[in-house]
Amino acid sequence: MAKIKHNNFIDTVDEVFSGAKKEGVMHLYAEDKSLNGRTIQIKGKEMFHFGTTGYLGLEQDSRLKEAAIDAIKKFGTQFPLSKSYISNPLYAELEAKMEAMYGIPTIITKNSTLGHMAVIPTAVRDEDGVILDHQVHWSVQTACQLLKLRGIPVEMIKHSNMVLLEDKIKQLMSKCKKIWYMADGVYSMFGDYAPIAALMELSKKYPQLHLYFDDVHGMSWKGKNGTGYVLSVLKEIPDNVMIMGTLSKTFGASGAVLLCPNAKLREKIKVFGGPLTFSAQLEPASVAAAIAAADIHLSVEITILQSELAEKIAYFNELISKTALPIIVKNDSPVFFLGTAIPITSYKLVQNLFEEGFFVNPAIYPAVPVQNTGIRITLSRHNQKEEIKALVEAIEKYLPIVLKETGNSLSKIQSAFGSVETHTTIDIIVDKSSLQLKYETSISKMDKPTWNELLGQQSTFDWEGLHFLEVAFANSDEPANKWDFHYYIIKDKNEIPLIATFFTYGLWKDDMMATESISKHLEEERIKNPLYLTSKVLGMGSLFTEGNHCYLNTSHPLIEEAILMLLQEIETLYNHLNADMLVLRDFEENEQLNRIFHNQGYLKVTMPDSCVVENLEWDTPQAFTNKLSPRSKRHFIEEVLPFEKAFDVVIKNELTIIETEQIYQLYKNVKNNNLAFNTFTYPPNVFIAMVTDPNWEFIMLYLKDEDNEQQQGQLVGTLFCYKNSNYTYSPSLIGMDYNYVREFQIYRQLLYQGIKRAKELNFKKIDFGFSATFEKKKLGATVIPKVAYVQARDNFSMELMGTLQNDDKTH
Asked: In this protein, which residues make up the domain named Aminotransferase class I/classII large (predicted)?
């Protein structure tokens, strides 16, 4: 069966960033003729700068500037030669000062990203394993992709979860010589710290554990000689720890610095560490500025600078403590995160703060989960107390305004982040006077004619189809196939429908639309743990159905208000159920929906294409053939029509117990051989419900007995078809005997027989669902691109998918 079209992460990120750019809060340009660190000019407006990562403000220090200028005059703008051959004249002095700062020799790299690319593949051996913290910097995760090409297991745990870390260590300890845990010292979004003390205790318990820290956000403002947060806790570097620091950001220059206590490994990295060998070295100006910064770090002045910043951090914390502002993590780092939960609130708040003269950074997906959107506020020594106070006052002023304007609330933010403490709440403001909502948990309580008028005639979710689904899934004994049902109809005060839809709540496999290789890996894990990497999902429609699950009266003037009402209702249910993910699915591309859903905190992702046949105006196989394209016509004549005579085609509405068992086995054959869209295997009771439902019928392919054509041969294929309102024919599942699939083109034959049957019954449309779009298109199906909109509690499962690959060590 053809592979389905999978989601494109890059397209999703582009969609998010494009939305932020349209709102005027990202991809901006500074317009200053000169910079002072305290203010920045954007679109003609001068703002106080609360977005820098130069926490000590050394990038504006005159000593660093003069050193850089002097180096350019003496040595030029660059030294264009690999450092493997020769270093520029200033390198030796910088290396000596770095050794004086840290107490051991260091390795200097072009930047931290290239540093990780050089160090990690060299330090991690083929017999080792890696565990990534979910929130470790992108550059570390990217460097670890190179390890997977060598068959090195790369695992991931939820952020700073020591219980999960220990579980992973236990899993890897018999397979790996060293186990590397990779984390940030200070995390760049929330400003929280790695649990270093707990990690060191864990490394005593498990001597195989080695720690690799990216401490670029902990550099300079913390630790003796400004050597960073990690060393401020450790005091000296143990043999099982490596640290990547930075010479940019707070240090004030450019480049990065690696701390490796193992002299032999350090030399190996320096001699052949990928980018260290083949990339350009730091420019003379950068090296000179770093030397000047190192002199400051080696003097008592660094403690004075650190104290000045600490005073401003303490002042900000004091002001915040007197407010109800949702700061997510409260500590003494210079990074603060104000939660807004949904993007539109963040955009509006940033816009208002810009107008008030404060530059801050919106924090959006993929840096944070889409429902954990917020504003990152960073403090530097340049910031003065009066503007810090004014910033807090401006946020206090505008946050309630934008919450009301965007239908948000502090309670919703608290729910999104889980641990936010608030002193007051602001209720969601929605005018319901002109709209009325009907909500039920069974289709039996919905008016049948109304439901079928709005959502009938497609797939298997007319009123009768949903009754079947409730029989099959609502009371299942299997957790994997037990669904709750939720129905919504929104009308205006004149009883005119604006929206009708339904949701199901149940378990989904996290790899449902991941690559087949990832699903294969996970299915082996699920032999031991059937519910491994599954999530509780509140999803529009159901995993059994496909099509337009949401009726929208787009011409109604209140449609946008109705959509927002629906979103509020389902998000209330989502939080009540404590689901992991909320999915609105199977929409066609729509600019209005893109805007609404993105602003309310949903990511748009590409779904598999839908396939529909609507041209059934033909009477003979030859007439059907003539309606196909020339290429499809040739395919039909050569690959489909000649095989029809090999089968007895039987249509059945009722099946014996033995026949039901046979078709169930054929279904499982297909399910087990197709991981392109990986769902749970439906239990036998679903098929028993089909057999007893008058709207289902079964197209059965029996191989003809060559000796006696009158005797029915072996059953080799079944198409499970739902008849919707005498209008839409829906082949929903397929079963095949894989011993005969290729020889007799069973899949193609079943599709063709489904088309013939729909024509015979005078149906107007065939809903072929998704997957195998290439095969269905060759038989005249129209392919319709579909998208979904998704919220998730965190990015963990999605990012974990990126760390998985088939690897003998992990099987």
From this structure: 47-395
Residues 706-762 have pLDDT tens digits of 655 544 689 999 999 999 988 999 999 999 999 999 999 999 999 999 999 999 999
**Can you point out the beta strands (E) in 452-580?**
484-492, 497-509, 534-540, 550-552
pTM equals 0.74
List the Cα angle 592/570/682 in 5-degree steps: 105
Residue 428 has pLDDT above 50, yes or no: no
Distance between CA 514 and CA 522 in Å, rounded? 11
Angle among Cα 205, 207, 211 to the nearest 5 degrees reads 100
Q: Cis omega before residue 366 (within 30°)?
A: yes
Judge whether residue 245 has pLDDT over 60: yes
Q: How far is CA 508 from the centre of its chain?
A: 15
- Cβ atoms of 624 and 618 closer than 8 Å: yes
| Helices and strands counted in the chain (H then E) | 28, 26
Q: Rounded CA gap, 635 and 289, in Å?
A: 69
Q: Could you give the residue ranges of the DSSP H alpha helices within 48-207?
A: 62-75, 91-102, 112-123, 138-148, 162-172, 196-205
CA distance 257 to 261: 13
Instruction: Assign 3-class secondary structure to 500-522.
Output: EEEEEEEEEECCCCCCHHHHHHH
Contacts of 152 (CB under 8 A, 6+ apart): 124, 126, 128, 129, 130, 807, 809
Q: 3-class secondary structure for 63-95?
A: HHHHHHHHHHHHHCCCCCCECCCCCCCCHHHHH
Q: Which domains does the chain have, with CATH numbers?
A: 31-46+312-321+341-417 (no CATH), 62-297 (3.40.640.10), 435-607+793-810 (3.40.630), 611-789 (3.40.630.30)
Question: Can you name the residues that pair with 698 across neighbouring β-strands?
Answer: 652, 720
- Could you give the maximum distance between any two Cα atoms of the chain, in Å? 100
Rg (CA), the chain: 31
Nearest-angstrom CA–CA distance, 378 and 395: 14
State how far the Cα of 49 lies from the Cα of 761, in Å rounded to an integer.
70
* Residue 444 vs residues 469, 486, 499: alpha-carbon distances, Å: 12, 12, 19
- Confirm if 328 and 339 have CB atoms less than 8 A apart: yes
Does the structure show a pLDDT above 70 at 514? yes
- Which contiguous run of DSSP H or E holds residue 720? strand 715-724
Write the pLDDT tens digit of every residue in 656-671. Answer: 999 999 999 999 999 9
pLDDT of residue 422: 36
What does the alpha-carbon distance between residue 648 and residue 712 come to, in Å, rounded to a whole number?
A: 7
> What one-letter code names the amino acid at 231?
L
**CB-based contact 616:767 (threshold 8 Å):** no
Task: Lowest mean pLDDT of 334-343, 444-453, 762-771, name the range.
Answer: 762-771
273 vs 154, more confident: 154
How wide is the angle at C-alpha 61 spanned by C-alphas 56 and 64, nearest 5°?
A: 115
Beta partners for residue 735, in sequence order: 718
Do 434 and 493 form a contact (C-beta atoms < 8 A)? yes
pLDDT at 720: 97
Which percentage of the chain shows pLDDT scores above 70? 93
- C-alpha 208/C-alpha 210 separation (Å) is 6
On the question of pLDDT at 121 being above 60, the answer is yes
Q: Dihedral of CA 704/706/709/712: which sign?
A: negative
DSSP state of 225: G
What DSSP line would sit under 611-622, residue for residue? EEE-----SSHH
What sign does the CA torsion over 19, 24, 26, 29 have?
Answer: positive
Extract the tokens encoding 612: 């529909």
Give Cα 421 distance to the centre of its chain: 26
